[in-house]
Predict the structure.
Amino acid sequence: MAGKKEFLIKINLDFCKACGLCYSYCPTKAIGPDKEFRASVVDADKCIGCLQCENYCPDFAIEIEEIK
Amino acid sequence: MFDYAEYLRLDKLPHIWCYGCGNGIILKGAIRAIDKMGWEKDSVMAVSGIGCSSRATGYLDFNSLHTLHGRAIPFATGIKMAKPELNVIVFTGDGDATAIGGNHFIHAARRNINLTVILFNNNIYGMTGGQYSPTTPKGYFASTAPYGHIDPSFDIVELALGAGATFVARSTVANPREMEKVIHEGLKNKGFSLIEVVSNCHERFGKRNKMKSPYEMIEWIRSRSVSKVKAESMEAEEREGKIITGIFRQETRPEYVETYDELVLKKARGGI
């Protein structure tokens, strides 16, 4: 799709405590739980850059960056 | 997309708060709001008391002070009087500000000293094992209320309004963007600003009240939240047990440090 913005999902597993808030609030399910219920990228193409995960993550463990 | 690292002491992370703790969400909202103010990092003073909420100052890369239980506001008052050019922000909790430090809180509001108080209200004493706090809702369970809590809870916003604070607002962790906005408005206010943010403590409060996960508890907070505009059209019975969010007061009144300095100058010039 022309003009579609792309985003880079950066997850810091050293800080992640597997609370599940990021993937519970992700509207497109671009992120999901891994085997230990920590955050993991499922499909980065689905990310719409709404920043719900970044705003809800209490542990500074997830960051969304726009790919220019 | 926001660079939090600039404002954090990264060597202190990961923080000690439980998984999914709303305090982290509030800390992030506060960082974004402080960033919007465009202040020099060295001009910000973060002061806190004791409790889960009060750990916040340890993670912030400002001038910070972790003080006695309930006494964050007196320490902050001292700092503001000695160095009025500093932007003093108090991080406190429901127990710290309204139980142990209840008197300090109301008198700072009455004086209208230029402080911004961000009050993390998690409805419980989390750090010490889940004893009920002044804001535990009636009918809910706590470790010291195994058969249900019978005390009516404190309405912190009404308390601050009654005491004379010039900026009073309430928000919740269920709405981080709105929280950021009201904290920003509070920081802009010249006078005593109170921002109560309702937070989730699923570990100590939720688990005793059928809300095991952080998601469930945040959704519980969301289901009880109503905006101030909507609440005005509701009956008193409907408002019972609801968390009313929004800005309740935003006005100007003579600020304490300025009034004090004027008095000192007047006396020094022989005017009195």
Notes: The longest helix of chain B spans residues 22-37. Chain B has a mean pLDDT of 93. The beta strands of chain B are 44-48, 63-66, 87-93, 116-121, 124-125, 131-132, 167-172, 193-198, 225-227, 243-250. The longest strand of chain B covers residues 243-250.
